[in-house]
């Protein structure tokens, strides 16, 4: 019987064979150009760094974290199919769980210490350099003050779309978006950005807050300010967007800003996202989860789709395997 390590190595080799055509300088160039086109800017140093180091990052995920990246998909704004994902399951969970496993392994070896239940209060500086962090941690007698000094400090947080208060970063940089729902959790209040600003750090591209075209409207709580994101893969496998009157109005594989612009120009605020059986099967992990959450339903045939859309029979053209509200 093949040993686990050998089996894992064999799986990695199979994945590399499946995607060998993608691991090239040509693909890096395409990644850079797709990104720049979507951002409506030239290829700058940050985009170039992302593109040129993509292969190394993929290699690390495969060999070090043992992430299954055997499938290739084309998503919105992509020139060709170039996004890697697992054969089953969602890529986000696959990445987070795999890296979490590696973190636990390092922690058990004594090479890493993790602190939870903490709140960063400020960055320590000395001679213009960051040398650590002040933080609080819940103790038996309330919040305890701590200082942690380090040669290197990495600030890896900063999402802020969940804070819609008058003094929020969203109000400062994109007040036009304050009325929109967000897929960000309650924790995304921009604390990381504010920590940097307090020691004089500059910010960049703060106004580039992405508006995603597909956030589920939960029938159980349609007015909720926080929406569950409908993954990009759903459109990538062939889902179409329909207005409430059953009209397809956009090429779903365009970049997100183009899809959002088409939605805003349609005259509607809520849309249906519809997959046929083949697409629903390809995105089975996503569809199954969304159905479990009550965000997607399965219908059989065009007439049933028309009934779900509340339009006359025959208005909805083409079969469907499932649908969900998107706003």
- The stretches of 5 or more residues where confidence is low (pLDDT under 50) are 318-322
Total count of helical runs of at least 4 residues: 12
How do the helices and strands follow one another from N- to C-terminus?
Answer: HHHHEEHEEEHHEEHEHEHHHE
CATH-derived topology of the largest domain: Flavocytochrome C3, Chain A, domain 1
Task: Tell me about the largest β-sheet.
Answer: 3 strands, antiparallel
Please indicate the count of domains.
3
CATH architecture type of the largest domain: Alpha-Beta Complex
- Structural class label: alpha+beta
β-sheet strand percentage: 15-25%
What is the spatial order of strands in the main beta sheet? 3-4-5
Write down the overall geometry: globular
User: Quaternary state, please?
Assistant: single chain
* Distance, first to last CA: 51 Å
Q: How many strands appear in the DSSP assignment?
A: 10
Cα gyration radius (Å): 23 Å
In CATH's first tier, which class of the largest domain applies?
Alpha Beta
CATH homologous superfamily placement of the largest domain: Succinate dehydrogenase/fumarate reductase flavoprotein, catalytic domain
- As a percent range, the share of helical residues equals 25-40%
Pfam family, one: FAD_binding_2
GO molecular function, one term: oxidoreductase activity
Domain FAD-dependent oxidoreductase 2 FAD-binding: 39-262
Keywords: Flavoprotein, Oxidoreductase
């Amino acid at each position: 019987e093949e040993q686990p390590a050998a089996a894992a190595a064999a799986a990695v080799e199979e994945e590399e064979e499946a995607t060998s055509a993608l691991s090239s300088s040509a693909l890096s160039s395409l990644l850079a150009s797709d990104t720049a086109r979507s951002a409506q800017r030239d290829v700058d140093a940050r985009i170039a760094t992302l593109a040129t180091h993509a292969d190394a990052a993929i290699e690390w995920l495969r060999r070090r974290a043992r992430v299954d990246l055997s499938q290739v998909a084309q998503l919105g704004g992509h020139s060709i199919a170039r996004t890697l994902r697992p054969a089953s399951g969602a890529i986000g969970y696959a990445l987070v769980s795999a890296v979490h496993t590696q973190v636990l392994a390092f922690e058990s070896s004594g090479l890493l210490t993790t602190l939870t239940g903490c709140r960063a209060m400020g960055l320590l500086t000395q001679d213009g350099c960051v040398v650590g962090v002040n933080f609080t941690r819940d103790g038996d007698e309330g919040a305890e003050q701590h200082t942690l000094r380090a040669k290197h400090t990495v600030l890896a947080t900063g999402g802020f779309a969940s804070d819609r208060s008058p003094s929020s970063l969203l109000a400062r940089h994109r007040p036009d978006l304050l009325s929109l729902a967000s897929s960000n959790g309650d924790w995304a209040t921009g604390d990381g950005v504010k920590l940097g600003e307090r020691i004089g750090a500059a910010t960049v591209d703060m106004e580039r807050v992405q508006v995603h075209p597909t956030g589920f409207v939960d029938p159980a709580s349609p007015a909720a300010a926080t929406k569950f994101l409908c993954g990009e893969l759903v459109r990538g496998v062939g889902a179409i967007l329909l207005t409430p009157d059953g009209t397809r109005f956009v090429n779903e594989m365009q970049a997100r800003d183009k899809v959002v612009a088409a939605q805003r120009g349609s005259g509607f605020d809520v849309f249906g996202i519809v997959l046929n059986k083949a697409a629903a099967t390809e995105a089975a992990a996503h569809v199954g989860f969304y159905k479990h959450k009550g965000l997607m339903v399965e219908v059989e045939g065009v007439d049933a789709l028309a009934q779900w859309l509340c339009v006359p029979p025959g208005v909805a053209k083409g079969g469907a395997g499932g649908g969900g509200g998107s706003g």
